[in-house]
Amino acid sequence: MHISALELHAATSYEDAAELLSRLSPDVRLLAGGTDVLVDLKNNGNGVSHLVTLERIDAMHGITEEADGLRIGALTTITELDESPLISGGYEIIRDAASQMATRQIRNTATIGGNIAGANPCADLPPVLIVLGAIAVVFSKQGPRELPLQDLITGPRETILAQDELLASIVVPRPPARFGAAYARFGLRKGNSIAVATAAASLILDNDGAVHDVHIALGAVAPKPVEVDAAKLWLEGRKLNGDSFDEVARAAMEAAQPISDLRGSAEYRRELVGVLTRRALQAAEQRAKG
Ligand SMILES: Cc1cc2nc3c(=O)[nH]c(=O)nc-3n(C[C@H](O)[C@H](O)[C@H](O)COP(=O)(O)OP(=O)(O)OC[C@H]3O[C@@H](n4cnc5c(N)ncnc54)[C@H](O)[C@@H]3O)c2cc1C
């Protein structure tokens, strides 16, 4: 397989990128780090003759601390997420995921925007960002609009983004006091293996040790990240103990819709979901305790 001839367009602003996408649609793809899209074009590039690179849009790079939380430009690399001192104070769950993804070489190039917009069901960052209540800022010829990150991904390799829209940044609200969040992931080996199943959890602990505002999201076990709403409702105001961990693990296993593939059977993945959900919730509680 090889990539057929492509014309490369370097967008210099959001407006420029949106205009290029609108004009060249439908035989155009956006290029961020290229770790996914270039493989995809090799295997399935028919009908694509233009690539729009976002590299020159300065506003899309890096992490900034703002009044409402962290703004992470869509071109921020996984290595930058892993190494940034701003990923602390409740945001550590982002590093939990970033540090376990792929290889150093891939992490140096791969971006958060590509990880989300690629909408691969086993992508590591979407479940993490969902339990943090992240907002996606998208940009089209009509200007910017914001939506909850969980509404962006609609299915395997499918998003709500229109042909002329791009993901510009992600805003992650500032975590409140006594907040904790953690990520648990299972891959078939330690380095460079995509996830077989993942669980992300966040919660707030009150002074009596009861948990509030619990969020659990699962990855790699459904066409898109799954939120475990039953666990959220059931846990509200309760303390975490053996029974509540059992109940939440059961709810997560029921919410998962895993498939069988070369990395594991549906039954194996469902069992993993129970184990990983417990681990994530337990680690989130520890972080909330400080
Ligand atoms: C060897 C290897 C190992 C990997 N391991 C992992 C892993 O462990 N975990 C994991 O989650 N992923 C993994 N991946 C997948 C991939 O590296 C990541 O999903 C990565 O974050 C994609 O980012 P990118 O910048 O390279 O995206 P690209 O390849 O540039 O783009 C991916 C898709 O998103 C679109 N896109 C990119 N940016 C935007 C934007 N700002 N707005 C709208 N659309 C956009 C592109 O058009 C394309 O369709 C692996 C890939 C490889 C090759």
What report would you give on this structure?
Helix 8 packs antiparallel against helix 9 (242-255). This protein has 290 residues and is of the alpha+beta class. The chain contains 10 helices and 14 strands. The longest helix is centred in the C-terminal third of the chain and has 24 residues, at 266-289. The structure holds flavin-adenine dinucleotide. Flavin-adenine dinucleotide binds at residues 29-37, 39, 54, 74, 101-102, 106, 110-111, 113-115, 117-118, 120, 123-124, 161, 166-167, 192, 194.
Largest sheet: 5 strands, antiparallel
Distance between the termini: 51 Å
Structural class from helices and strands? alpha+beta
Number of strands: 14
Unreliably modeled segments: none
Bound ligands, each once: flavin-adenine dinucleotide
Mean pLDDT: 95
Helix content: 25-40%
Radius of gyration: 19 Å
Strand order of the largest sheet: 4-5-10-6-7
Alpha plus pi helix count: 10
Overall geometry: globular
Order of helices and strands: EHEHEEEHHHHHEEEEEEEEEHHH
Work out the strand percent.
25-35%
Key features of this structure:
290 residues; alpha+beta; five-stranded antiparallel sheet; four-stranded antiparallel sheet; 14 strands; 27% strand; globular; binds flavin-adenine dinucleotide
Please write out the topology.
Layout: E1 7-10, H1 14-24, E2 28-31, H2 37-44, E3 50-53, E4 63-66, E5 69-73, H3 78-83, H4 92-98, H5 104-109, H6 112-117, H7 125-131, E6 135-140, E7 143-148, E8 153-155, E9 158-159, E10 166-173, E11 179-187, E12 195-205, E13 211-219, E14 226-227, H8 229-235, H9 242-255, H10 266-289
Helix pairs in contact: 8-9, 9-10
The chain binds flavin-adenine dinucleotide.
